[in-house]
């Protein structure tokens, strides 16, 4: 298929599709892949219908071909008479997209088992005859291939902030490779190139283009802190350099009657604080899980307060302060902190270039700045070495305080419309290249029961409060979300179930009110038979 490159490519392994089919079956949900197949093949209708009696399985054979194996209870009405059959079969399907629509072709069927009216099993030779009739009906010489259109879900990504618009990606291409389903989606309508097979070992991989990721980042930026306040104290090794710059500080001391030779400066420092405001950056994906950030607006409001501790004789400072206090022997020194100046400056800057690392943190994709190139010049008239130290400090604060943007990748919004059920998704890693980001995830479906051994010998219906032997034909009619297995009939009776009228009729009488689950349930029922 020709067309533009997809912005999002979703690769789903065969195992995930089969677990989704099982989850849809056991959860009895109507919007899963099972429902999609039923609608596509037009199985349900006013005079026909089908209900699965076990989870189906699909095998992705490549070249757009799927093999589906299922067991179902089918019925059809003919001349006012309803015919029922339990069918176990495998069908070969072709799947593709064309002109923005998805199609499924029913190509072949192999019948494994057919039981009429739940009692009469069709012999093998009759099954072969039925298969031949079906193949003949689907041949080009007859009615032709059975092709059905399929609904194509839209990947809707909700807005992360109030007032902002969400994103939509329309599935525009579909490819069935060996053991893998690959979908291509774009936010713009039109043809999308069919993605090729991928080599990743993960259950699900989502490739996001640079432009689409940038839109996600722009939306996520609204949740990140944009303004940070930082402060620090920077020592000045050479205090005389401040006195040389700030002549007014020397004038204050000279006004006290001291000469420069009588001023002893113990230490000096600068109290600095700054408010940093970040704007939304542009990004470019690099290899190795890294991102290059360009053109990020930056506003810095910095304030400096140079200070020093100057010491003079105690007597002079005592006279200066107007208080004579005995503090030891003559000749000792008193010290006072002198505010040399208070400076402030506002700058609108732009991060020329920065490098960030993409990583997975607690199931979310996070972006953290690691290196930064900031063109900044401060014009405070300070000593050169101090200006350099202040510039380095501000750059370090810009780097360390850059918002650790967290992208809550909408994998569920991408995967659920395809699978029809809601799995638990765990991000498992990422890779990036020139213009794309690959995110890997593993899925778990809580609806699928874990394997057990041995199998329960009794099956109970939570809705009808009936218990069946495992081979009872009525047991197949229990909805999967209402089915519970028991290894002991006594336990089922103790939990308030009564016997099936077909296979456990002797226990078919319900317990009297107030007696359910008390005493010997089996004996209580038998007494009323």
Number of strands: 25
Gyration radius, to the nearest Å? 38 Å
Rough outline: elongated
Most strands sheet: 8 strands, antiparallel
Mean pLDDT equals: 76
Structural class: alpha+beta
Report the helical percentage: 10-25%
Strand content: 35-45%
- Helix count from the secondary structure assignment: 11
List low-pLDDT spans: 314-332, 512-518
* First and last CA, distance: 70 Å
Question: If you had to describe this structure to a student in words, what would you say it looks like?
Answer:
It is a single chain. The protein is α+β, with helices and mostly antiparallel strands and 529 residues long. Helix content is 21%, strand content 44%. The chain is built from eleven helices and 25 strands. The strands form four sheets. Strands 12, 13, 14, 15, 16, 17, 18 and 19 form an eight-stranded antiparallel sheet that branches. Strands 8-9-10-1-11-21-20 form a seven-stranded antiparallel sheet. Strands 2, 3, 4, 5, 6 and 7 form a six-stranded antiparallel sheet that branches. The longest helix has 18 residues. It is elongated and about 115 Å long.
